[in-house]
């Protein structure tokens, strides 16, 4: 998908979360790194239409996130920092089924899509579980299933490996690598994005580097002073 920022910025009162940004993205995997408070989540929220630009515009395949809000939103899926909060129905099976139900599917059709999607992410065994019975990695994958069943063009991850152990980190990394969908991945876990061909570095609300994972990581280390 073609994501385009045209002098888009995001301000909260007199605080600038993201300075005016002009940028085009179409790579399958885009990493986003930077210090805390550098504007990464603001950037991601603008893509997903969860925040509206204070000025300028953000378009997804030409659809404006403000003027074509519904159609643009349908193109994106967002996995939040605490994916447990976005699972709202008691059982994983029910929650993943919400999307197809809201598209008007019923009974067996919903069940089939849910089964296929859980199998796609290797979590069929979680179907009858409740969110509080899942590990952090399993929650990420369950949220991913609930998002991907809606067939977004791009999935945005906000620190997907935060607080995960090595095994779960590897599992989530593999799930992202295996996605057919485009992925925009915000991360403090530099290993996760190191081999992405395009990684953006934000600093103090501005895009300060745009390049390969290796080069972006080096720039980020310079900024962090370590
Ligand atoms: N709703 C809000 N109201 C006011 N200021 C905000 C709001 N959301 C973010 N900010 C401010 O905007 C700036 C950028 O925040 P943002 O969440 O985009 O950073 P981030 O790079 O994602 O940080 P982190 O790595 O800590 O998640 C910060 O100074 C933050 O305090």
Automatic annotation (TrEMBL):
PANTHER family for this protein: ENERGY-COUPLING FACTOR TRANSPORTER ATP-BINDING PROTEIN ECFA1, HEAVY METAL TRANSPORTER
Stored SUPFAM superfamilies: P-loop containing nucleoside triphosphate hydrolases
Record-annotated ABC transporter domain positions: 3-223
GO CC aspect terms: ATP-binding cassette (ABC) transporter complex
Keyword Transport included in the entry's annotation: yes
Keyword Transferase applies: no
Pfam families in the record: ABC_tran
Upper classification of the organism: Bacteria, Pseudomonadati, Pseudomonadota, Alphaproteobacteria, Hyphomicrobiales
An MF annotation (GO) of this entry: ATP binding
Keywords: ATP-binding, Nucleotide-binding, Transport
Organism this protein belongs to: Rhizobium glycinendophyticum
InterPro entries, sorted: AAA+_ATPase (IPR003593), ABC_transporter-like_ATP-bd (IPR003439), ABC_transpr_CbiO/EcfA_su (IPR015856), ECF_ABC_transporter_ATP-bd (IPR050095), P-loop_NTPase (IPR027417)
Name recorded for this polypeptide: ABC transporter ATP-binding protein
Family, as annotated: Belongs to the ABC transporter superfamily.
Gene3D superfamilies: P-loop containing nucleotide triphosphate hydrolases (3.40.50.300)
């Amino acid at each position: 998908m073609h994501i385009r920022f045209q002098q888009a910025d995001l301000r909260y009162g007199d605080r600038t979360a993201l300075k005016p940004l002009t940028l085009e993205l179409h790579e399958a995997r885009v990493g986003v790194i930077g210090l805390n408070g550098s504007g990464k989540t603001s950037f991601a929220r603008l893509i997903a239409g969860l925040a509206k630009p204070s000025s300028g515009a953000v378009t997804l395949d030409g659809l404006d996130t403000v003027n074509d809000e519904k159609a643009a939103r349908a193109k994106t899926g967002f996995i939040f920092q605490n994916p447990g909060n976005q699972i709202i129905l008691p059982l994983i099976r029910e929650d993943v089924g919400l999307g197809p139900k809201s598209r008007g599917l019923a009974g067996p059709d919903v069940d089939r899509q849910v089964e296929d999607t859980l199998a796609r992410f290797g979590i069929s065994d979680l179907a009858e579980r409740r969110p509080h019975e899942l590990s952090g990695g399993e929650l990420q994958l369950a949220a991913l299933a609930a998002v991907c069943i809606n067939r977004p063009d791009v999935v945005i991850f906000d620190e997907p490996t935060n607080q995960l152990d090595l095994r779960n980190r590897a599992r989530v990394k593999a799930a992202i690598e295996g996605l057919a969908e485009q992925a925009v991945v915000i991360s403090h876990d530099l290993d996760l994005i190191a081999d992405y061909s395009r990684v953006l570095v934000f600093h103090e609300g501005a895009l300060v580097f745009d390049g390969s994972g290796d080069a972006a990581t080096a720039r980020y280390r310079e900024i962090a002073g370590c």
